[in-house]
Amino acid sequence: MGLQRNLVLVVSCAFLLSVCAAEFVPVYIWGTRSAGEPVPALHKISQSSFKDEVANKLRANSRIIVFAEHSLSPEDFGQRDRSGDLAFPNLSKLRKTSKVTYLSYVQNPVKAIQLASDDVAEISIERLRENFEIPDSKIVIIDLNDADENERRFDMLKRHDDFIASLYSSVLEKNENVLALYTAHHASWIGSGEVHSRKVRSLERAASITTNQYMDN
């Protein structure tokens, strides 16, 4: 009986870790060639499936440039300021000039991208601003990790939107086929976080109860 309870504890803890590790983040994809087939708005894509998709896209594009926020949510794309302006005016315009695909929920997209090739470079936006030299790798991940605590999130996203547009234009001048992705390391929507927290707390309580029962015996 004790062994069975111990096994339940191990399984519960493993599931808890998997829940904590899995985050679904939006991915905005555009390029000179097809960016992918449309998918249902609420469709969730696993890390493994997305890794394979990125690897396939690398065969058709000379380079993949990834712009990675610290956190992002589908709700961010609909944000407007008091004047009615969007946080991503440049990304919105891409629909008229590039082939665009939007994926609402991708599991750990940055991690999937890192595993999609053995030639991946990662650089911060601050370091890139210093010399504007983009690493000569097949996949380049640019971390947009320059948030200012005194800056509104909307203003930060809009500033990053300008940076992305400028850098992408620069890369296109030197590369014929470029695929770009805008995503994040983590999900930022508080609603998802609340649901996630409730699941974690529930699993923690279950694991705690099982542990106490096992220790009592």
Describe this structure in words.
This protein has seven helices and seven strands; from the N terminus they run αββαβαβαβαβαβα. With 217 residues, the chain is of the alpha/beta class. Strands 2-4-1-7-3-6-5 form a seven-stranded mixed β-sheet, sandwiched between helices. The N and C termini lie close together (9 Å). The model is unreliable at 8-20 and 190-217 (pLDDT under 50).
How many angstroms separate the termini? Answer: 9 Å
Q: Quickly give the structural class.
A: alpha/beta
What percent of the residues sit in helical stretches (DSSP H or I)? 40-55%
What strand line-up does the widest sheet have? 2-4-1-7-3-6-5
Supply database-style keywords.
217 residues, signal, 7 strands, 7 helices, globular, alpha/beta, ATPase activator activity, single chain, disordered C terminus, Ac45_acc_su
